[in-house]
Amino acid sequence: MRKIFNAFTLAEVLITLVIIGIIAAITVPTIMIKKDKEQTCTKLKKFYSTMTSAIMLYKNAEGITNGKLDFPEEIVNNGEQGMKWYQKTIGKYISSTLVKQSDNEHWQVFLNDGSSFVAYSNGIERIHIFYCTKPSCSKEDFQEEYDGKRTFLFTLYNSGTFVTSYGGKTIFPREDLLNKCKNTEKQYCTKLIQVDGWQIKDDYPW
């Protein structure tokens, strides 16, 4: 008795492939975005921890008991002097591949994990730090940028306090941070992620 084999027709195969393609087109970008968010949060948390530890190690090594870092006036709006100050102080406790002056006012630090940051001081009270999570920033001259996706703002105060965004130890309600981050004040996105436990929640403006 002859066996009868049932096979898919060409039309059925093509329809199946189209369906698979549509599902992939929908799900793959979602998976990639989720992964990108997770990697961003991991790097932000690591950078915050790295900087905080470096500041503490420097204070202990120098016997600083009052907690203050006392930024010299020479680093204000001076990339070369700022870079030298960094290298002599907290930079000794941060693993990096390169530290360079990026322009007259800024200096740039390339970290071992492929991320980097640009810093500058506009006064002896603080140093603004623009941190980039992507290796692409190492291949370009980015400056004062904080878009809440690739680049984020941190601030180091002469009191020795290192904070996300800025504002010292000021406590902002989450709703205020979310509204600022969603609108034009992207500098507050870093603090929002920290407040959310170093996570990017569903209502975050990604």
Looking at this protein, list some descriptive labels:
single chain; 206 residues; alpha+beta; 6 strands
Strand count: 6
Helix fraction bin: 25-40%
Structural class: alpha+beta
Order of helices and strands: HHEEEEEEHH
**Shape verdict:** elongated
Largest sheet: 6 strands, antiparallel
Number of helices: 4
Structural features, described:
This protein has about 210 residues and is of the alpha+beta class. About 40% of the residues lie in helices and about 15% in strands. It contains 4 helices and 6 strands. The chain has helices at about 10-60, 80-90, 175-180, 190-195; strands at about 95-100, 105-110, 115-125, 125-130, 150-155, 160-165. Strands 1-2-3-4-5-6 form a 6-stranded antiparallel sheet. Helix 3 runs antiparallel to helix 4. It is elongated, with a radius of gyration of 23 Å. The model has no long low-confidence stretch (mean pLDDT about 90).
Concise summary:
By secondary structure, this protein is an alpha+beta fold. Helices cover 38% and strands 17% of the residues.
Write the layout of secondary structure elements.
Layout: H1 10-62, H2 79-88, E1 96-101, E2 107-111, E3 116-123, E4 126-132, E5 151-157, E6 162-164, H3 174-182, H4 189-195
Antiparallel strand pairs: 1-2, 2-3, 3-4, 4-5, 5-6
Helix pairs in contact: 3-4
